[in-house]
Fold this sequence. Notes:
Blueprint: E1 11-12, E2 14-16, E3 19-21, E4 28-32, E5 39-44, H1 48-62, H2 65-68, H3 71-87, H4 89-100, H5 104-127, E6 133-136, E7 144-152, E8 155-159, H6 165-178, E9 182-186, H7 193-205, E10 212-214, H8 223-229, E11 235-239, H9 242-252, E12 258-262, E13 267-271, H10 277-289, E14 299-305, H11 309-320, H12 341-356, E15 360-363, E16 383-386, H13 393-396, E17 403-409, H14 412-420, E18 424-425, E19 427-431, H15 435-441, E20 449-452, E21 467-468, E22 471-472, H16 477-484, E23 485-493
Parallel strand pairs: 1-5, 8-9, 8-11, 9-10, 11-12, 13-14, 13-19, 14-17, 16-17, 19-20
Antiparallel strand pairs: 2-3, 4-5, 6-7, 7-23, 12-22, 15-16, 18-21
Helix pairs in contact: 3-5, 3-7, 4-5, 5-6, 10-11
Amino acid sequence: MDKAVKTSVGETLNFVGGEYRKSSSGKTFDNINPIDGSVASIVHEADATDVDAAVTAANEALNGEWGQMPLAKRLELVAAVADEINRRFDEFLEAEVADTGKPVSLASHIDIPRGAANFQIFADTMKNHHGEFYNSPTPDGTGAINYTSERPKGVIAVVCPWNLPLLLMTWKVGPALACGNTVVVKPSEETPQTASLLGEVMNIVGIPKGVYNVVNGFGPNSTGEFLVKHPNVDAITFTGETVTGEAIMQNAAVGMRDVSFELGGKNSSIVFADCDMNKAIEGTVRSVFANCGQVCLNTEKVFVERLIYDDFVARLKTEVEKMKPGLPGDDGTDMGPLVSQEHRKKVLSYYEAAVKEGATVVTGGGIPDMPDDLKDGSWIEPTIWTGLADDASPIIDEIFGPCCHIRPFDTEVEAIKLANDSKYGLACSIWTENLSRAHRVGPQMDVGLCWINCWFLRDLRTPFGGAKQSGIGREGGEYSLEFYLETSNVCVKL
Length: 494
């Protein structure tokens, strides 16, 4: 049977040098379906030998056919990956839903189409990318010319999160390949299936062996650590928790490898009394509870001008209590489970801490009553609090669950100060119909991305990333190319 095709039913294998492989050590672990607690697949955990084989394959491809391939041909293949993902849309959808438990309506409108589009978008971006040229005067009057020359950075380690597995992985792999790099992907141990499935796509469209590699496993003392410590990895890109980013950065310091990090967030929303209340309520429901609160851009702190505070809390409560948890494919399912029982324990610990620290539970705060066949899933109630102090742990810490705290404010200056009072600085939302206020407040937010009267609206050409402890660098459009290309200046004396 052809090793280039994934053949082990119920198993998630590593993908190295264009072939699917079991782990050298024989170690495996269960990938648990968060909907009902069943085993979604058996995952082969890559050891140091497997990681070294993947990095070696990536280097060989970089120095072989892929590295010599003309730009136009390379971008044609990268764009073809998007077409093949879309052709196999249902397979990717099934794998993504099995890993995450998210509603089909969400995954089919965001995760899979955006995951595919990242290849087409960055192929187009690279096609239109160009260097710079300068005429420079010299003391002898003859002059000089300077122009930029760019080359791939090399082997990129791509360490991915579990909340948007395909989308956030291809957000990095797409530009990396468009720029001519090779990659070794370490997906989250919670959600490995779409990264593995993408290997089939690479083979079908003709991406040379070794350009795209996948190693499965955990972080410390496992696959992730072996990968980021590997001396032949040239750069590391990571999306996930800040504490993990700090550990990766320490390893990247050995050999002075470049890093690009999108890390934690504790995002705020400011709702002014002059907002369109219907827009603000609808947008807040999405920004807090989409994907069961498991999006780095989700809102966890909502600041509402006192004039409309009581009305806002009451209306948000009404909308949240309409939300229906259920099977991903069921009509009317608004919310899936959290990704795992372990993550639910973390989120529930903050639900308990909020009550201990004086919160009023407006709605939620526990585990929903689910049918018997779903009781072993990682279900949790969407939750709203009021009344917490500004230094309470649920106000300071990133929870990453379907919850928010609502606090009143009286002045614009106070709202800005409250929203910026965080070690994180990823995103925020502002709700106001006052044009002057929108342009006045937006630039004062200490974040990488500020939305006004919307949430999660993205032009993929714009810079994306965080301030403070929310990340290093920017992704999107030309900003991604800056990380994946090594730029040199060539100076010619005339």
